[in-house]
Design brief:
4-stranded antiparallel beta sheet; 4 helices; about 170 residues
């Protein structure tokens, strides 16, 4: 009898874990934003070492569609830049700007995220000297980007998103 009840508890735990994994798989993992000249896609991805982080893809608009073949792609460093982005978006960061430099195989990519006084977020991607894209996100878009960042953090540590929010709320800012 004891073994049967133990089996049913383990089976129940497996079922709950499977439901959570399915729910996580179908949660939003990318968002796209467009303005008059550029398109920006922010996506939850894994680094080469399988660490979840955010990837920013910036493309010029051609005929109303993003030219994704020539997009500038930048991954946030999962160790510190991801947390710094969360701090910037939650206004815990002293500075209103996050500058991520020397990314890519040639160390020539950069990503700058600025918090503007009007509540907008400006995202600037660069590659080389003259190649850059800039997109301003309206205040309503900020929580969507923040939710992706929290999901990346939570996935990295295999915790629920609400736990990630709690941990990062009590963590010291830069």
């Amino acid at each position: 009898m004891v073994q049967e009840s133990q089996y049913s508890i383990n089976e129940r735990e497996r079922k709950i874990a499977k439901e959570r994994a399915t729910a996580r798989r179908f949660m939003s993992k990318q968002m796209s934003f467009y303005n008059s000249r550029t398109a920006l896609q922010i996506e939850l991805v894994e680094t080469e070492k399988y660490i979840p982080t955010l990837q920013f893809q910036h493309a010029m608009l051609i005929g109303g569609e993003g030219d994704w073949n020539r997009a500038i792609r930048s991954n946030l460093n999962a160790h510190d830049e991801l947390v710094q982005l969360i701090q910037l978006l939650t206004r815990k960061r002293r500075s209103d700007e996050l500058a991520c430099r020397f990314h890519g195989s040639n160390n020539n990519k950069s990503l700058t995220v600025k918090r503007l006084p009007n509540g907008k977020i400006e995202i600037i991607s660069g590659q080389g000297k003259d190649n850059y894209r800039k997109t301003s996100l309206e205040p309503w878009a900020v929580p969507h980007v923040l939710s992706l960042a929290y999901k990346a953090y939570a996935t990295r540590y295999n915790i629920e998103v609400i736990e990630a929010v709690s941990i990062l709320n009590v963590s010291p800012a830069d």
